[in-house]
Design a protein that fits this description.
The complex is a heterodimer of chains A (about 350) and B (about 260). Chain A is mostly helical and about 350 residues long. Chain A has 15 helices and four strands. Chain B has a six-stranded mixed β-sheet with strand order 6-7-8-3-9-10, sandwiched between helices. In chain B, strands 2-1-4-5 form a four-stranded antiparallel β-sheet, covered by helices on one side. The longest helix of chain B is centred in the C-terminal third of the chain and has 18 residues. The chains are: A mainly alpha (about 350), B alpha/beta (about 260). The structure holds adenosine-5'-triphosphate and magnesium ion.
Protein backbone atom coordinates (compact mmCIF):
# COMPACT_ATOMS: atom_id res chain seq x y z
CA UNK A 1 0.00 0.00 0.00
CA UNK A 2 1.23 3.44 -0.82
CA UNK A 3 1.67 6.08 1.80
CA UNK A 4 0.29 9.47 0.91
CA UNK A 5 2.20 12.06 2.78
CA UNK A 6 1.50 15.06 0.67
CA UNK A 7 -1.07 16.26 -1.76
CA UNK A 8 -0.81 18.78 -4.53
CA UNK A 9 -3.20 21.53 -5.43
CA UNK A 10 -1.57 23.19 -8.40
CA UNK A 11 0.25 21.84 -11.44
CA UNK A 12 3.32 23.77 -10.38
CA UNK A 13 3.39 21.89 -7.09
CA UNK A 14 2.80 18.66 -8.91
CA UNK A 15 5.79 19.23 -11.15
CA UNK A 16 8.22 20.04 -8.35
CA UNK A 17 11.61 18.40 -8.14
CA UNK A 18 11.20 17.42 -4.52
CA UNK A 19 7.66 16.35 -3.84
CA UNK A 20 8.36 15.78 -0.13
CA UNK A 21 9.95 17.89 2.56
CA UNK A 22 12.23 15.14 3.83
CA UNK A 23 14.17 15.12 0.56
CA UNK A 24 14.64 18.86 0.78
CA UNK A 25 15.76 18.71 4.39
CA UNK A 26 18.29 15.94 3.86
CA UNK A 27 19.69 17.72 0.84
CA UNK A 28 20.06 20.94 2.80
CA UNK A 29 21.86 19.06 5.57
CA UNK A 30 24.20 17.53 3.01
CA UNK A 31 25.04 20.96 1.57
CA UNK A 32 25.66 22.35 5.07
CA UNK A 33 28.01 19.43 5.69
CA UNK A 34 29.92 20.26 2.52
CA UNK A 35 30.13 23.93 3.45
CA UNK A 36 31.60 23.01 6.83
CA UNK A 37 33.98 20.42 5.39
CA UNK A 38 37.06 22.69 5.22
CA UNK A 39 36.73 23.30 8.96
CA UNK A 40 37.75 19.76 9.80
CA UNK A 41 39.18 18.22 6.65
CA UNK A 42 42.88 18.28 5.86
CA UNK A 43 44.51 19.58 2.68
CA UNK A 44 44.57 16.22 1.01
CA UNK A 45 40.92 15.45 1.71
CA UNK A 46 39.94 18.87 0.37
CA UNK A 47 41.84 18.19 -2.82
CA UNK A 48 40.02 14.88 -3.26
CA UNK A 49 36.70 16.58 -2.54
CA UNK A 50 37.48 19.23 -5.14
CA UNK A 51 38.32 16.51 -7.66
CA UNK A 52 34.95 14.89 -6.93
CA UNK A 53 33.24 18.21 -7.58
CA UNK A 54 35.08 18.80 -10.83
CA UNK A 55 34.30 15.28 -12.00
CA UNK A 56 30.66 15.94 -11.12
CA UNK A 57 30.50 19.04 -13.29
CA UNK A 58 32.13 17.29 -16.17
CA UNK A 59 30.20 14.06 -15.91
CA UNK A 60 26.88 15.89 -15.76
CA UNK A 61 27.88 17.30 -19.13
CA UNK A 62 28.59 13.85 -20.53
CA UNK A 63 25.33 12.67 -19.03
CA UNK A 64 23.42 15.26 -21.04
CA UNK A 65 24.99 13.98 -24.24
CA UNK A 66 25.19 10.27 -23.57
CA UNK A 67 22.71 9.64 -20.79
CA UNK A 68 19.87 11.88 -21.93
CA UNK A 69 20.39 12.25 -25.68
CA UNK A 70 21.89 8.80 -26.24
CA UNK A 71 24.97 9.93 -28.17
CA UNK A 72 27.86 7.89 -26.80
CA UNK A 73 31.05 9.94 -26.79
CA UNK A 74 34.56 8.66 -26.17
CA UNK A 75 36.05 12.12 -26.49
CA UNK A 76 34.83 13.88 -23.39
CA UNK A 77 38.34 14.36 -22.02
CA UNK A 78 39.29 16.14 -25.24
CA UNK A 79 36.67 18.81 -24.58
CA UNK A 80 37.97 19.14 -21.05
CA UNK A 81 41.48 19.52 -22.45
CA UNK A 82 40.30 22.31 -24.71
CA UNK A 83 38.79 24.12 -21.71
CA UNK A 84 41.91 23.59 -19.64
CA UNK A 85 44.37 24.72 -22.30
CA UNK A 86 42.22 27.72 -23.12
CA UNK A 87 42.65 28.86 -19.54
CA UNK A 88 46.35 28.13 -19.49
CA UNK A 89 46.95 30.10 -22.68
CA UNK A 90 44.70 33.06 -21.97
CA UNK A 91 46.06 33.22 -18.44
CA UNK A 92 49.61 33.20 -19.74
CA UNK A 93 49.16 35.75 -22.46
CA UNK A 94 46.26 38.00 -21.48
CA UNK A 95 46.05 37.72 -17.68
CA UNK A 96 42.27 37.54 -17.69
CA UNK A 97 40.43 37.29 -14.37
CA UNK A 98 39.23 33.89 -13.23
CA UNK A 99 35.49 34.45 -13.87
CA UNK A 100 36.15 35.43 -17.44
CA UNK A 101 38.55 32.54 -17.95
CA UNK A 102 35.97 30.11 -16.70
CA UNK A 103 33.35 31.28 -19.15
CA UNK A 104 35.88 31.43 -21.95
CA UNK A 105 36.91 27.82 -21.26
CA UNK A 106 33.27 26.73 -21.55
CA UNK A 107 32.63 28.75 -24.69
CA UNK A 108 35.74 27.56 -26.54
CA UNK A 109 35.01 23.94 -25.60
CA UNK A 110 31.43 24.27 -26.77
CA UNK A 111 32.57 25.70 -30.10
CA UNK A 112 34.71 22.57 -30.41
CA UNK A 113 31.57 20.61 -29.50
CA UNK A 114 29.69 22.28 -32.34
CA UNK A 115 32.49 21.42 -34.75
CA UNK A 116 32.36 17.76 -33.76
CA UNK A 117 28.55 17.68 -33.68
CA UNK A 118 27.91 18.80 -37.23
CA UNK A 119 29.66 15.92 -39.02
CA UNK A 120 28.24 13.54 -36.40
CA UNK A 121 24.62 14.31 -37.26
CA UNK A 122 24.42 11.64 -39.90
CA UNK A 123 26.27 9.15 -37.76
CA UNK A 124 24.72 6.77 -35.32
CA UNK A 125 25.97 4.24 -32.81
CA UNK A 126 29.34 2.81 -33.66
CA UNK A 127 30.24 5.49 -36.22
CA UNK A 128 29.60 8.29 -33.76
CA UNK A 129 31.73 6.53 -31.14
CA UNK A 130 34.60 6.21 -33.61
CA UNK A 131 34.30 9.88 -34.59
CA UNK A 132 34.46 11.13 -31.02
CA UNK A 133 37.35 8.78 -30.36
CA UNK A 134 39.20 10.13 -33.40
CA UNK A 135 38.61 13.64 -32.05
CA UNK A 136 40.11 12.58 -28.74
CA UNK A 137 43.25 11.27 -30.45
CA UNK A 138 43.60 14.35 -32.62
CA UNK A 139 43.43 16.63 -29.59
CA UNK A 140 45.89 14.48 -27.69
CA UNK A 141 48.28 14.53 -30.63
CA UNK A 142 48.07 18.29 -31.02
CA UNK A 143 48.66 18.86 -27.31
CA UNK A 144 51.75 16.67 -27.37
CA UNK A 145 53.29 17.88 -30.60
CA UNK A 146 52.42 21.53 -31.05
CA UNK A 147 55.15 22.38 -28.60
CA UNK A 148 55.42 26.07 -29.36
CA UNK A 149 51.87 26.46 -28.11
CA UNK A 150 51.35 23.71 -25.54
CA UNK A 151 54.93 22.97 -24.43
CA UNK A 152 54.25 19.29 -25.10
CA UNK A 153 54.59 16.80 -22.27
CA UNK A 154 55.90 19.35 -19.79
CA UNK A 155 52.66 21.27 -19.93
CA UNK A 156 51.92 24.81 -18.88
CA UNK A 157 52.04 26.07 -15.29
CA UNK A 158 48.95 27.89 -14.07
CA UNK A 159 49.76 30.89 -11.93
CA UNK A 160 47.89 31.88 -8.87
CA UNK A 161 44.68 33.64 -9.67
CA UNK A 162 42.14 35.19 -7.46
CA UNK A 163 38.40 35.28 -7.74
CA UNK A 164 36.92 38.38 -6.10
CA UNK A 165 38.44 38.10 -2.62
CA UNK A 166 39.19 34.39 -2.78
CA UNK A 167 42.72 33.15 -3.20
CA UNK A 168 42.63 30.09 -5.42
CA UNK A 169 45.98 28.85 -4.19
CA UNK A 170 44.30 27.82 -1.00
CA UNK A 171 42.78 24.33 -1.01
CA UNK A 172 39.75 25.24 1.05
CA UNK A 173 38.94 28.26 -1.09
CA UNK A 174 39.41 26.19 -4.21
CA UNK A 175 36.98 23.73 -2.72
CA UNK A 176 34.36 26.45 -2.22
CA UNK A 177 34.65 27.60 -5.82
CA UNK A 178 34.27 24.03 -7.05
CA UNK A 179 31.39 23.43 -4.67
CA UNK A 180 29.44 26.46 -5.87
CA UNK A 181 30.00 25.55 -9.50
CA UNK A 182 29.10 21.90 -8.91
CA UNK A 183 25.84 22.93 -7.25
CA UNK A 184 25.11 25.29 -10.11
CA UNK A 185 25.83 22.53 -12.64
CA UNK A 186 23.56 20.16 -10.76
CA UNK A 187 20.68 22.63 -10.69
CA UNK A 188 21.11 23.52 -14.34
CA UNK A 189 21.17 19.89 -15.42
CA UNK A 190 18.18 18.98 -13.30
CA UNK A 191 16.24 21.95 -14.67
CA UNK A 192 17.20 21.08 -18.19
CA UNK A 193 16.11 17.49 -17.72
CA UNK A 194 12.69 18.64 -16.54
CA UNK A 195 12.21 21.14 -19.34
CA UNK A 196 10.97 20.93 -22.88
CA UNK A 197 14.46 20.53 -24.29
CA UNK A 198 15.40 17.80 -21.81
CA UNK A 199 12.29 15.81 -22.67
CA UNK A 200 13.11 16.16 -26.35
CA UNK A 201 16.66 14.89 -25.67
CA UNK A 202 15.25 11.75 -24.12
CA UNK A 203 12.79 11.40 -27.00
CA UNK A 204 15.70 11.52 -29.46
CA UNK A 205 17.48 8.85 -27.42
CA UNK A 206 14.54 6.48 -26.99
CA UNK A 207 12.82 6.64 -30.34
CA UNK A 208 14.14 9.05 -32.93
CA UNK A 209 11.44 8.40 -35.56
CA UNK A 210 8.63 9.03 -33.11
CA UNK A 211 10.45 12.17 -31.95
CA UNK A 212 10.62 13.48 -35.50
CA UNK A 213 6.96 12.71 -36.13
CA UNK A 214 5.91 14.95 -33.24
CA UNK A 215 8.13 17.74 -34.53
CA UNK A 216 11.44 17.36 -32.69
CA UNK A 217 14.26 18.54 -34.93
CA UNK A 218 16.82 15.76 -34.45
CA UNK A 219 19.82 17.65 -35.81
CA UNK A 220 19.13 20.73 -33.72
CA UNK A 221 18.75 18.76 -30.51
CA UNK A 222 21.86 16.67 -31.07
CA UNK A 223 23.83 19.87 -31.66
CA UNK A 224 22.36 21.55 -28.56
CA UNK A 225 23.23 18.48 -26.53
CA UNK A 226 26.81 18.48 -27.80
CA UNK A 227 27.15 22.18 -27.02
CA UNK A 228 25.79 21.90 -23.49
CA UNK A 229 27.89 18.83 -22.83
CA UNK A 230 31.17 20.28 -24.07
CA UNK A 231 30.52 23.56 -22.27
CA UNK A 232 30.41 21.72 -18.97
CA UNK A 233 33.44 19.65 -19.96
CA UNK A 234 35.29 22.90 -20.68
CA UNK A 235 34.43 24.25 -17.24
CA UNK A 236 35.61 20.99 -15.69
CA UNK A 237 38.89 21.14 -17.60
CA UNK A 238 39.42 24.71 -16.53
CA UNK A 239 38.96 23.80 -12.89
CA UNK A 240 41.40 20.88 -13.20
CA UNK A 241 43.94 23.36 -14.50
CA UNK A 242 43.50 25.58 -11.44
CA UNK A 243 43.52 22.75 -8.95
CA UNK A 244 46.57 20.97 -10.40
CA UNK A 245 48.29 24.33 -11.03
CA UNK A 246 49.91 22.82 -14.10
CA UNK A 247 48.22 21.51 -17.15
CA UNK A 248 49.63 18.56 -19.09
CA UNK A 249 48.22 16.30 -21.81
CA UNK A 250 48.30 13.47 -19.28
CA UNK A 251 45.29 14.85 -17.41
CA UNK A 252 43.08 14.40 -20.47
CA UNK A 253 43.99 11.09 -22.06
CA UNK A 254 41.70 8.62 -23.80
CA UNK A 255 41.69 6.62 -20.57
CA UNK A 256 40.05 9.60 -18.87
CA UNK A 257 37.34 9.68 -21.53
CA UNK A 258 36.67 6.02 -20.80
CA UNK A 259 36.59 6.76 -17.08
CA UNK A 260 33.90 9.36 -17.64
CA UNK A 261 31.78 6.89 -19.58
CA UNK A 262 32.37 4.46 -16.72
CA UNK A 263 31.11 7.11 -14.28
CA UNK A 264 27.74 7.36 -15.98
CA UNK A 265 27.45 3.59 -16.31
CA UNK A 266 28.34 3.04 -12.66
CA UNK A 267 26.23 5.98 -11.48
CA UNK A 268 23.23 5.45 -13.70
CA UNK A 269 22.61 6.73 -17.20
CA UNK A 270 20.46 9.76 -17.71
CA UNK A 271 19.95 10.71 -14.08
CA UNK A 272 21.47 13.66 -12.24
CA UNK A 273 21.90 11.85 -8.93
CA UNK A 274 23.47 8.93 -10.78
CA UNK A 275 25.98 11.25 -12.43
CA UNK A 276 27.04 12.68 -9.08
CA UNK A 277 27.29 9.26 -7.44
CA UNK A 278 29.30 7.91 -10.36
CA UNK A 279 31.67 10.87 -10.38
CA UNK A 280 32.38 10.57 -6.66
CA UNK A 281 32.65 6.79 -6.76
CA UNK A 282 35.13 6.73 -9.61
CA UNK A 283 37.17 9.59 -8.10
CA UNK A 284 37.34 7.95 -4.69
CA UNK A 285 38.03 4.46 -5.99
CA UNK A 286 41.69 5.08 -6.93
CA UNK A 287 42.18 6.73 -3.54
CA UNK A 288 40.89 3.64 -1.78
CA UNK A 289 42.91 1.36 -4.01
CA UNK A 290 45.93 3.52 -3.20
CA UNK A 291 45.26 3.04 0.51
CA UNK A 292 45.26 -0.70 0.05
CA UNK A 293 48.00 -1.09 -2.52
CA UNK A 294 50.32 1.63 -1.25
CA UNK A 295 51.50 -0.27 1.82
CA UNK A 296 51.35 -3.52 -0.15
CA UNK A 297 53.77 -2.35 -2.78
CA UNK A 298 56.23 -0.94 -0.27
CA UNK A 299 56.15 -4.25 1.60
CA UNK A 300 56.59 -6.28 -1.58
CA UNK A 301 58.54 -4.05 -3.99
CA UNK A 302 58.71 -6.78 -6.65
CA UNK A 303 54.92 -6.57 -7.02
CA UNK A 304 54.70 -2.82 -7.37
CA UNK A 305 55.02 -2.87 -11.15
CA UNK A 306 51.98 -5.13 -11.41
CA UNK A 307 49.75 -3.15 -9.09
CA UNK A 308 48.95 -0.55 -11.73
CA UNK A 309 47.59 -3.27 -13.96
CA UNK A 310 45.54 -4.62 -11.06
CA UNK A 311 44.03 -1.17 -10.61
CA UNK A 312 42.84 -1.12 -14.19
CA UNK A 313 41.53 -4.64 -13.85
CA UNK A 314 39.47 -3.66 -10.84
CA UNK A 315 38.04 -0.74 -12.83
CA UNK A 316 37.07 -3.10 -15.61
CA UNK A 317 35.50 -5.56 -13.23
CA UNK A 318 33.43 -2.88 -11.56
CA UNK A 319 32.10 -1.69 -14.91
CA UNK A 320 31.23 -5.22 -15.96
CA UNK A 321 29.58 -5.83 -12.62
CA UNK A 322 27.32 -2.81 -13.04
CA UNK A 323 26.50 -3.60 -16.65
CA UNK A 324 25.51 -7.14 -15.73
CA UNK A 325 23.89 -6.82 -12.34
CA UNK A 326 22.88 -3.20 -11.84
CA UNK A 327 22.23 -1.55 -15.20
CA UNK A 328 20.61 1.36 -13.43
CA UNK A 329 23.85 1.91 -11.56
CA UNK A 330 24.28 3.39 -8.10
CA UNK A 331 21.16 5.43 -8.80
CA UNK A 332 19.14 2.21 -8.95
CA UNK A 333 20.58 1.11 -5.60
CA UNK A 334 19.88 4.55 -4.15
CA UNK A 335 16.23 4.40 -5.25
CA UNK A 336 15.80 0.97 -3.75
CA UNK A 337 17.23 2.13 -0.42
CA UNK A 338 14.93 5.15 -0.52
CA UNK A 339 11.87 3.06 -1.24
CA UNK A 340 12.83 0.72 1.57
CA UNK A 341 12.82 3.59 4.05
CA UNK A 342 9.88 5.48 2.59
CA UNK A 343 7.15 4.01 4.81
CA UNK A 344 9.28 4.67 7.87
CA UNK A 345 8.28 4.93 10.67
CA UNK A 346 5.26 2.89 9.63
CA UNK A 347 5.77 -0.80 9.08
CA UNK A 348 3.71 -2.95 6.75
CA UNK B 1 -10.86 23.34 -51.51
CA UNK B 2 -8.93 20.18 -50.64
CA UNK B 3 -6.97 20.32 -47.40
CA UNK B 4 -4.48 17.67 -48.43
CA UNK B 5 -3.85 16.83 -52.04
CA UNK B 6 -1.85 13.86 -53.24
CA UNK B 7 -1.02 13.71 -56.92
CA UNK B 8 0.33 10.79 -58.95
CA UNK B 9 2.34 9.26 -56.17
CA UNK B 10 4.73 6.40 -56.92
CA UNK B 11 6.70 4.54 -54.27
CA UNK B 12 8.76 1.38 -54.61
CA UNK B 13 11.08 -0.66 -52.43
CA UNK B 14 13.56 -2.36 -54.73
CA UNK B 15 11.32 -4.44 -56.94
CA UNK B 16 8.18 -4.05 -54.82
CA UNK B 17 5.81 -1.36 -56.01
CA UNK B 18 4.09 -0.14 -52.87
CA UNK B 19 2.17 2.77 -54.44
CA UNK B 20 1.31 3.12 -58.13
CA UNK B 21 -0.04 6.42 -59.41
CA UNK B 22 -2.11 7.19 -56.33
CA UNK B 23 -4.01 10.49 -56.35
CA UNK B 24 -6.22 11.52 -53.52
CA UNK B 25 -7.66 14.66 -52.06
CA UNK B 26 -8.88 15.08 -48.52
CA UNK B 27 -11.43 17.84 -47.99
CA UNK B 28 -11.13 20.12 -45.01
CA UNK B 29 -12.84 18.95 -41.87
CA UNK B 30 -13.99 15.52 -42.96
CA UNK B 31 -13.19 11.98 -41.94
CA UNK B 32 -11.61 10.26 -44.90
CA UNK B 33 -11.12 6.50 -44.58
CA UNK B 34 -8.51 4.50 -46.45
CA UNK B 35 -9.20 0.79 -46.68
CA UNK B 36 -7.76 -2.15 -48.51
CA UNK B 37 -6.47 -5.69 -48.00
CA UNK B 38 -3.21 -6.38 -46.17
CA UNK B 39 -0.15 -5.03 -47.93
CA UNK B 40 -2.21 -2.67 -50.08
CA UNK B 41 0.05 0.27 -49.31
CA UNK B 42 -2.10 2.15 -46.81
CA UNK B 43 0.60 2.60 -44.18
CA UNK B 44 3.12 3.40 -46.89
CA UNK B 45 0.86 6.22 -48.08
CA UNK B 46 0.68 7.78 -44.60
CA UNK B 47 4.44 7.42 -44.26
CA UNK B 48 4.86 9.41 -47.47
CA UNK B 49 2.62 12.18 -46.14
CA UNK B 50 4.66 12.28 -42.92
CA UNK B 51 7.97 12.37 -44.70
CA UNK B 52 9.09 9.05 -43.23
CA UNK B 53 9.22 7.60 -46.76
CA UNK B 54 10.32 9.57 -49.81
CA UNK B 55 8.09 8.81 -52.80
CA UNK B 56 9.82 8.16 -56.14
CA UNK B 57 7.68 10.75 -57.92
CA UNK B 58 4.53 12.71 -57.23
CA UNK B 59 3.42 15.63 -55.11
CA UNK B 60 1.78 15.94 -51.74
CA UNK B 61 0.37 19.39 -51.11
CA UNK B 62 -0.68 20.63 -47.73
CA UNK B 63 -1.29 24.26 -46.81
CA UNK B 64 0.64 25.50 -49.84
CA UNK B 65 3.70 23.31 -49.15
CA UNK B 66 5.00 20.33 -51.06
CA UNK B 67 5.51 17.76 -48.32
CA UNK B 68 7.65 15.46 -50.45
CA UNK B 69 10.52 17.90 -50.03
CA UNK B 70 10.24 18.31 -46.28
CA UNK B 71 11.59 16.49 -43.24
CA UNK B 72 9.18 14.73 -40.83
CA UNK B 73 9.65 17.32 -38.10
CA UNK B 74 8.96 20.21 -40.49
CA UNK B 75 5.80 18.44 -41.63
CA UNK B 76 4.76 17.95 -38.02
CA UNK B 77 5.21 21.66 -37.44
CA UNK B 78 2.75 22.40 -40.24
CA UNK B 79 0.12 20.62 -38.16
CA UNK B 80 0.20 17.00 -39.28
CA UNK B 81 -0.47 14.63 -36.37
CA UNK B 82 0.03 10.89 -36.66
CA UNK B 83 -0.60 7.63 -34.86
CA UNK B 84 0.90 4.32 -35.85
CA UNK B 85 -0.38 0.82 -36.47
CA UNK B 86 1.89 -0.58 -33.73
CA UNK B 87 1.95 2.24 -31.15
CA UNK B 88 5.15 4.27 -31.33
CA UNK B 89 5.14 5.94 -27.92
CA UNK B 90 8.09 6.67 -25.66
CA UNK B 91 7.73 3.55 -23.58
CA UNK B 92 10.03 4.54 -20.73
CA UNK B 93 8.23 7.80 -20.11
CA UNK B 94 5.01 8.50 -18.28
CA UNK B 95 1.77 9.35 -20.03
CA UNK B 96 2.22 12.97 -18.95
CA UNK B 97 5.71 13.17 -20.43
CA UNK B 98 4.52 11.65 -23.69
CA UNK B 99 1.70 14.15 -23.96
CA UNK B 100 3.94 17.09 -23.04
CA UNK B 101 6.25 15.98 -25.83
CA UNK B 102 3.25 16.31 -28.11
CA UNK B 103 3.24 20.01 -27.14
CA UNK B 104 6.93 20.31 -28.04
CA UNK B 105 6.47 22.80 -30.84
CA UNK B 106 4.16 25.07 -28.89
CA UNK B 107 6.88 25.95 -26.39
CA UNK B 108 8.99 29.06 -26.84
CA UNK B 109 11.82 28.37 -24.43
CA UNK B 110 14.93 26.52 -25.54
CA UNK B 111 18.10 25.12 -24.03
CA UNK B 112 19.06 28.16 -22.01
CA UNK B 113 15.72 28.98 -20.42
CA UNK B 114 15.16 25.28 -19.85
CA UNK B 115 18.35 25.09 -17.81
CA UNK B 116 17.65 28.24 -15.82
CA UNK B 117 13.94 27.89 -15.09
CA UNK B 118 13.24 24.16 -15.34
CA UNK B 119 9.80 23.22 -14.13
CA UNK B 120 9.21 26.75 -12.79
CA UNK B 121 8.96 28.03 -16.32
CA UNK B 122 5.40 29.40 -16.58
CA UNK B 123 5.10 27.74 -19.98
CA UNK B 124 5.27 24.34 -18.32
CA UNK B 125 2.09 25.05 -16.41
CA UNK B 126 0.29 26.47 -19.47
CA UNK B 127 1.02 23.39 -21.50
CA UNK B 128 0.25 21.13 -18.58
CA UNK B 129 -3.25 22.62 -18.62
CA UNK B 130 -3.67 21.79 -22.28
CA UNK B 131 -2.35 18.29 -21.66
CA UNK B 132 -4.84 17.85 -18.82
CA UNK B 133 -7.67 18.79 -21.20
CA UNK B 134 -6.59 16.02 -23.54
CA UNK B 135 -6.29 13.61 -20.60
CA UNK B 136 -9.86 14.46 -19.58
CA UNK B 137 -11.10 14.14 -23.12
CA UNK B 138 -9.61 10.68 -23.64
CA UNK B 139 -10.47 9.54 -20.12
CA UNK B 140 -6.97 8.44 -19.17
CA UNK B 141 -6.82 10.33 -15.84
CA UNK B 142 -5.90 7.33 -13.77
CA UNK B 143 -2.85 6.52 -15.91
CA UNK B 144 -1.45 10.07 -15.91
CA UNK B 145 1.77 9.16 -14.10
CA UNK B 146 2.04 5.55 -15.22
CA UNK B 147 4.87 4.46 -17.45
CA UNK B 148 3.61 3.69 -20.94
CA UNK B 149 5.29 0.29 -21.06
CA UNK B 150 3.13 -0.86 -18.15
CA UNK B 151 -0.18 0.13 -19.73
CA UNK B 152 -2.61 -2.20 -21.50
CA UNK B 153 -2.42 -2.04 -25.28
CA UNK B 154 -5.80 -0.36 -25.66
CA UNK B 155 -4.80 2.46 -23.32
CA UNK B 156 -1.49 2.89 -25.14
CA UNK B 157 -3.37 3.42 -28.39
CA UNK B 158 -5.47 6.06 -26.69
CA UNK B 159 -2.40 7.80 -25.28
CA UNK B 160 -0.84 7.84 -28.72
CA UNK B 161 -3.96 9.51 -30.06
CA UNK B 162 -3.65 11.95 -27.17
CA UNK B 163 -0.05 12.78 -28.06
CA UNK B 164 -1.12 13.58 -31.60
CA UNK B 165 -4.01 15.72 -30.28
CA UNK B 166 -1.64 17.67 -28.04
CA UNK B 167 0.05 18.91 -31.19
CA UNK B 168 -3.14 20.86 -32.02
CA UNK B 169 -3.02 19.31 -35.47
CA UNK B 170 -4.78 20.61 -38.56
CA UNK B 171 -4.99 17.09 -39.88
CA UNK B 172 -4.73 13.75 -38.12
CA UNK B 173 -3.40 10.60 -39.77
CA UNK B 174 -4.62 7.58 -37.83
CA UNK B 175 -3.27 4.15 -38.76
CA UNK B 176 -5.67 1.46 -37.55
CA UNK B 177 -6.56 3.10 -34.23
CA UNK B 178 -8.80 0.18 -33.26
CA UNK B 179 -6.55 -2.76 -34.16
CA UNK B 180 -6.18 -5.30 -31.39
CA UNK B 181 -9.12 -3.92 -29.41
CA UNK B 182 -12.29 -5.52 -28.15
CA UNK B 183 -15.76 -4.32 -29.18
CA UNK B 184 -16.12 -1.91 -26.29
CA UNK B 185 -12.71 -0.29 -26.77
CA UNK B 186 -13.38 -0.01 -30.50
CA UNK B 187 -16.60 1.85 -29.81
CA UNK B 188 -14.78 4.21 -27.45
CA UNK B 189 -12.18 5.06 -30.08
CA UNK B 190 -14.85 5.59 -32.75
CA UNK B 191 -16.61 7.96 -30.37
CA UNK B 192 -13.38 9.85 -29.68
CA UNK B 193 -12.75 10.25 -33.40
CA UNK B 194 -16.25 11.59 -33.95
CA UNK B 195 -15.83 13.98 -31.01
CA UNK B 196 -12.54 15.26 -32.38
CA UNK B 197 -14.21 15.84 -35.71
CA UNK B 198 -17.18 17.62 -34.20
CA UNK B 199 -15.52 19.63 -31.44
CA UNK B 200 -12.23 20.61 -33.02
CA UNK B 201 -13.04 20.19 -36.70
CA UNK B 202 -9.73 18.53 -37.50
CA UNK B 203 -9.50 16.75 -40.85
CA UNK B 204 -8.92 13.06 -40.26
CA UNK B 205 -7.37 10.42 -42.51
CA UNK B 206 -8.26 7.06 -41.06
CA UNK B 207 -6.92 3.64 -42.01
CA UNK B 208 -9.32 1.08 -40.65
CA UNK B 209 -10.01 -2.63 -41.05
CA UNK B 210 -13.24 -2.65 -39.08
CA UNK B 211 -15.87 -2.07 -41.76
CA UNK B 212 -18.50 -1.25 -39.20
CA UNK B 213 -16.45 1.71 -37.96
CA UNK B 214 -15.68 2.85 -41.50
CA UNK B 215 -19.36 2.77 -42.53
CA UNK B 216 -20.47 4.54 -39.36
CA UNK B 217 -18.10 7.46 -39.09
CA UNK B 218 -16.40 8.23 -42.39
CA UNK B 219 -17.61 10.69 -45.00
CA UNK B 220 -15.40 9.49 -47.79
CA UNK B 221 -13.64 6.20 -48.48
CA UNK B 222 -10.65 5.43 -50.70
CA UNK B 223 -9.82 1.82 -51.48
CA UNK B 224 -6.27 0.68 -52.22
CA UNK B 225 -5.29 -2.72 -53.58
CA UNK B 226 -1.71 -3.72 -54.45
CA UNK B 227 -0.69 -0.08 -54.47
CA UNK B 228 -3.46 1.00 -56.84
CA UNK B 229 -6.44 3.14 -55.98
CA UNK B 230 -9.36 1.00 -57.12
CA UNK B 231 -12.34 2.92 -55.83
CA UNK B 232 -13.41 6.09 -54.06
CA UNK B 233 -16.66 7.60 -52.86
CA UNK B 234 -19.08 7.81 -49.96
CA UNK B 235 -19.13 4.64 -47.82
CA UNK B 236 -22.36 3.11 -49.09
CA UNK B 237 -21.27 3.55 -52.72
CA UNK B 238 -17.84 2.01 -52.18
CA UNK B 239 -19.36 -0.85 -50.23
CA UNK B 240 -21.27 -1.99 -53.31
CA UNK B 241 -18.50 -1.38 -55.85
CA UNK B 242 -17.84 -4.70 -57.60
CA UNK B 243 -14.09 -3.97 -57.79
CA UNK B 244 -13.92 -3.58 -54.04
CA UNK B 245 -15.91 -6.73 -53.44
CA UNK B 246 -13.60 -8.52 -55.86
CA UNK B 247 -10.47 -7.28 -54.02
CA UNK B 248 -11.72 -8.41 -50.65
CA UNK B 249 -13.08 -11.67 -52.05
CA UNK B 250 -9.70 -12.31 -53.62
CA UNK B 251 -8.13 -11.87 -50.25
CA UNK B 252 -10.60 -14.29 -48.70
CA UNK B 253 -10.01 -16.92 -51.35
CA UNK B 254 -6.30 -16.51 -50.81
CA UNK B 255 -6.74 -17.10 -47.13
CA UNK B 256 -8.90 -20.19 -47.75
CA UNK B 257 -6.27 -21.57 -50.09
CA UNK B 258 -3.62 -21.09 -47.45
CA UNK B 259 -5.59 -22.76 -44.68
CA UNK B 260 -6.66 -25.63 -46.95
N1 LIG C 1 10.18 -0.26 -45.30
C1 LIG C 1 9.76 -1.14 -46.26
N2 LIG C 1 10.69 -1.87 -46.92
C2 LIG C 1 10.28 -2.75 -47.88
N3 LIG C 1 9.02 -2.96 -48.23
C3 LIG C 1 8.05 -2.25 -47.60
C4 LIG C 1 8.38 -1.31 -46.57
N4 LIG C 1 7.25 -0.76 -46.11
C5 LIG C 1 6.25 -1.33 -46.81
N5 LIG C 1 6.73 -2.22 -47.70
C6 LIG C 1 5.95 -3.01 -48.65
O1 LIG C 1 5.00 -2.15 -49.24
C7 LIG C 1 3.75 -2.81 -49.37
C8 LIG C 1 2.67 -2.01 -48.68
O2 LIG C 1 2.85 -2.10 -47.28
P1 LIG C 1 1.96 -1.33 -46.23
O3 LIG C 1 2.59 -1.51 -44.90
O4 LIG C 1 1.74 0.05 -46.68
O5 LIG C 1 0.61 -2.14 -46.28
P2 LIG C 1 -0.74 -1.85 -45.49
O6 LIG C 1 -1.78 -1.53 -46.51
O7 LIG C 1 -0.54 -0.87 -44.43
O8 LIG C 1 -1.07 -3.30 -44.90
P3 LIG C 1 -1.62 -3.70 -43.46
O9 LIG C 1 -3.09 -3.70 -43.55
O10 LIG C 1 -1.07 -5.08 -43.26
O11 LIG C 1 -1.10 -2.74 -42.47
C9 LIG C 1 3.92 -4.20 -48.83
O12 LIG C 1 4.16 -5.08 -49.90
C10 LIG C 1 5.14 -4.09 -47.96
O13 LIG C 1 5.84 -5.31 -47.94
MG1 LIG D 1 -0.51 -0.85 -42.41
Amino acid sequence: MAVTRYCTRTYLQDQRIFPSHSAKISLTLFVIFLVLLPAFAGQYLLLVASLCGIATISVLGLNILTGYTGQLSLGHAAFMAIGGYTVALTGEHFHLPFELNLILAGVVASIAGLVVAIPSLRLKGLYLIITTMAFQFIVEYVLLHWESLTEGERGIPIHAYSLFQLNLDDRSQQFYVVLVLAIAATILTKNLAMSRTGRAFVAVRDHDIAAEIIGVNLAKHKIMSFIASSFMAGIGGCLYAYVYQRITPEIFTFMVSIEYVAMIIVGGMGTVVGGILGACFMTLLPQFLGLIFGPLSSAYPFMSSRLGAINIMIYGMIIIFFLLFEPEGLFGIWIRIKNYWKPWPFKY
Amino acid sequence: MPHLEIRELFLSFGGIKALIDVSLSVEKGIIHAIIGPNGAGKTALLNCINGVYRPDTGRIEFGGHDLTRMKPDEIARLGVGRTFQNVELFRNMTVLQNLLLGRHNHFRSGLFRGGVHGYRNPEEVDHRKKVEEVIDFLEVERWRKAYVKNLPYGVQKRVELGRALCMDPEILLLDEPTSGMNVEETEDIARFILDIHEEIGTSIVLIEHDMGVVMDISHMVTVLDFGNKISEGPPHVVQNDPKVIQAYLGEEQERERKTA
